[in-house]
Design brief:
Strand content: under 5%
Number of helices: 3
Structural class: mainly alpha
Helix content: 40-55%
Number of strands: 0
Largest sheet: none
Oligomer: single chain
Order of helices and strands: HHH
Shape: globular
Amino acid sequence: VPNPGNDMAFTPDGLAAIAAAAGMKDVATAPDAAHALARLSGARGRVLVCGSLYYAGEILRENG
């Protein structure tokens, strides 16, 4: 998921490539947090939000 307004952040595709190279399976990107969470709807497990506390707070505020 891109981090809007943060020009220093890795791109989603760049992070996905790093994760895949590290052996993570089923790596995917999404245009925003809402789409990413919708894709995970119904999935079992936990969602890890990485990045700034500001961005994590935005996601929590929007998705409670």
